[in-house]
Specification:
Blueprint (H helix, E strand, L loop, with lengths): L7 H9 L11 E4 H8 L8 E5 L5 H12 L12 H9 L9 E6 L5 E10 L2 E9 L8 H15 L6 E4 L1
Parallel strand pairs: 5-6
Antiparallel strand pairs: 1-6, 2-3, 3-4, 4-5
Helix pairs in contact: 2-5
């Protein structure tokens, strides 16, 4: 169930009934040019490459997504079926292969991280970004994000803001 923070009466009733908040979302708007300037010239580390989700192995991408969700509050234990994942990932009109990138360890072929930006009619929205624990603190997420945002900037769409949820 999703309720916004401004629905205090419903939130109180649910809390009184024993429900607890498992996850909270934050909406932030970021100026695209400022974001690109702050990221700078972020590059993937040696032996890590980026591919589009459109070119990724579906089952391996799904398992990466499930693994990353284990670290997101309220989604631990999330497991999607191949059919669910395909529908939720590739069927929405917001899917853009240029703004859904997967980090691949070139030595092992393992999918180790991703950045997913949905290109919605109301403007782009970051759907998820992250790197598996064993590969963190190497700048992978920042480099993937820089690539996606750079592609977004080159697309010259009218909205200069990026919505982050």
């Amino acid at each position: 169930m999703h309720l916004s923070e401004d629905r205090a009466d419903e939130l109180r009733i649910l809390a009184d009934a024993g429900f607890m908040a498992a996850r909270r979302e934050l909406k932030v708007e970021v100026d695209l040019n400022e974001a690109l300037a702050a990221i700078g010239d972020a590059r993937l580390p040696p032996s890590v490459t980026a591919i589009s989700a459109a070119d990724a192995g579906l089952d391996r991408l799904r398992l990466l997504d499930d693994g990353l969700r284990d670290d997101v509050p309220g989604t631990a234990g999330w497991r999607s079926t191949p059919a669910e994942f395909t529908k939720e990932t590739f069927d929405p009109p917001a899917f853009n292969p240029a703004t859904y990138l997967v980090a691949v360890d070139e030595r092992t072929g393992e999918y180790i991280g991703l950045v997913r930006i949905w290109m919605n009619r109301s403007g782009p929205r970051i759907g998820m970004f992250g790197v598996l624990r064993a590969h963190r603190r190497r700048g992978i997420t920042l480099a993937l994000l820089a690539r996606c945002l750079g592609r977004r900037a080159r697309a010259r769409q009218p909205d200069g803001n990026l919505r982050i949820r």
